[in-house]
């Protein structure tokens, strides 16, 4: 069975393909993804944005298409960066720029900076929704990055059970507990149950 992933983030695609390994479900990028009309993500929640993307890119693939919307929710910042995680430092922001802005906003804020990664995956065929799958993982934002692995905010996200950041954890170890891993395993289980 083949399902198509709608993402411009190579790190996410790699994680989904790794999670699907050995399940009999192949994950491929939506054909010609880079040249397709861009999707406007104007939802107020992760779920809304995931559905917008899945329906938009579902029109360009013959089969099931899934899209995720995920991000970092920091308690001390009233939930920011939230749905703006990828573009926290502005349009075309880099992971480094987003991380620097996050650290700047947390500077001088007392207490432990509790946070969670949240992921919602929407599954669609053409414009018809086939399910929403969610995952979240709790952690703490450090005052400086640690580790060269992962992507996005991973080097700042300390996961207490591992005693390290997601940037220091191996891909497999991170995927076993991550928000994206949880949501995607729920999607895979749903597909296997409906076979």
Give a written overview of the molecule.
The chain has 195 residues and is an alpha/beta fold. It has a single domain (2-193), classed as Maf protein (Alpha-Beta Complex). 30% of the residues lie in helices and 26% in strands. The protein has helices spanning 10-20, 46-58, 95-106, 171-177, 179-193; strands at 2-5, 26-29, 64-74, 114-125, 128-141, 157-159, 164-165. Strands 2-1-3-4-5-6-7 form a seven-stranded mixed sheet. Strand 6 and strand 7 (164-165) form a beta hairpin. The termini are close together. The relative contact order is 0.17. The mean pLDDT is 95.
Distance between the termini: 10 Å
How much of the sequence is in beta strands? Answer: 25-35%
For the record, what CATH class applies?
Answer: Alpha Beta
CATH fold naming: Maf protein
Poorly predicted regions are none
